[in-house]
């Protein structure tokens, strides 16, 4: 069954913002890109790698994440962690999400 193109576009817009909040929330515990993809997918956030990795770099450039390479294992991995500023932004976004959800439910 084919999805209505208008609906598909709106769903993509809706998910785009929620991935930011979800990523900042999950990365309060350090994690690398692929593990974040798996965690998000298991929670119902289907995100493609070619979307997530640029997002992680953008969030780091904004000072919302920090990163460090872990070279202890055979395959080096770049671990990301939410900064205190990133945690504050995530909290504010979750609060706004709750407010908007309540407003929509009241309509």
UniProtKB/TrEMBL annotation:
Superkingdom of origin organism: Bacteria
Keywords: DNA-binding
The Transcription regulator PadR N-terminal domain, residue ranges: 26-90
GO molecular function, one term: DNA binding
Classification via InterPro entries: Metal_resp_DNA-bind_regulator, Tscrpt_reg_PadR_N, WH-like_DNA-bd_sf, WH_DNA-bd_sf
Gene3D superfamilies named among the record's database cross-references: Winged helix-like DNA-binding domain superfamily/Winged helix DNA-binding domain (1.10.10.10)
Protein's name according to its UniProt entry: DNA-binding PadR family transcriptional regulator
Lineage of the species this protein comes from: Bacteria, Bacillati, Actinomycetota, Actinomycetes, Micromonosporales
């Amino acid at each position: 069954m084919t999805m209505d193109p208008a609906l598909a576009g709106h769903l993509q817009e809706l998910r785009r913002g929620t991935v930011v909040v979800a990523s900042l929330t999950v990365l309060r515990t350090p994690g690398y890109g692929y593990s974040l993809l798996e965690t998000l997918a298991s929670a119902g956030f289907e995100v493609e790698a070619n979307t997530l990795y640029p997002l992680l770099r953008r969030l780091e450039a904004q000072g919302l994440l920090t990163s460090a390479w872990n070279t202890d294992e055979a395959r080096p991995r770049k671990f990301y962690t939410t900064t205190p500023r990133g945690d504050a932004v995530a909290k504010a976004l979750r609060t706004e999400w709750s407010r908007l959800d309540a407003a929509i439910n009241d309509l």
